[in-house]
Amino acid sequence: VQLQESGGGSVQSGGSLRLSCTGSGYDSRKYSMAWFRQAPGQEREGVAAIDSDGDIKYADSVKGRFTISRDNAKNTLYLQRDSLKPEDTAVYYCAADVLPFGLASEYYYWGQGTQVTVSH
Q1: Buried b / exposed e along 8-37 (16+ C-beta atoms within 10 A)
Q2: Cβ–Cβ < 8 Å for 58, 68
Q3: In this structure, are residues 47 and 36 in contact, taking their beta carbons and an 8 Å threshold?
Q4: Which residues are within 8 A (CB) of 15 and not within 5 positions of it... i.e. 6 or more apart?
């Protein structure tokens, strides 16, 4: 299983970016998927997750601003991020596992991460 994130970059506060995570080597329909992020000097935190049935959970810090979605036909996970804030600056990772809504330590497959920088 391989996961590859794309769509990171630099944006000004209030802007939008959409991240994508394309997987290979597995049937994504059977997996729960999630986005995590890690800022310098901080622990990796969950941002949003979607299970194989389409149920979704968000971290309180991103509710109303981020939208997670998946296209199983393309084995791709998305994270639409609007109203970005400087505190959203981090490396964003996608993850996959058969178990839903786990902690970071419970996800088995990970992408390499993509940097997102939000400036004032």
Answers
A1: beebeeeeebebbbbbeeeebeebbbbbbb
A2: yes
A3: yes
A4: 84, 118
pLDDT in tens, 85-102: 999 999 999 999 998 888
CA angle (28, 33, 39) in 5-degree steps: 140
Report how far Cα 85 is from the mean position of its chain's Cα atoms: 16
Distance, CA of 97 to CA of 1 (rounded, Å): 11
52 is written with which tokens?
Answer: 């194989």
Token reading at 27: 């049937």
Tell me: the pLDDT tens digits for 6-44?
A: 999 999 999 999 999 999 998 888 999 999 999 999 999
The token duo for 38 is 């890690």
Give me 17's structure tokens: 């970016």
The answer to whether 15 and 8 have CB atoms below 8 angstroms apart is: no
Q: Tokens for 86?
A: 């400087």
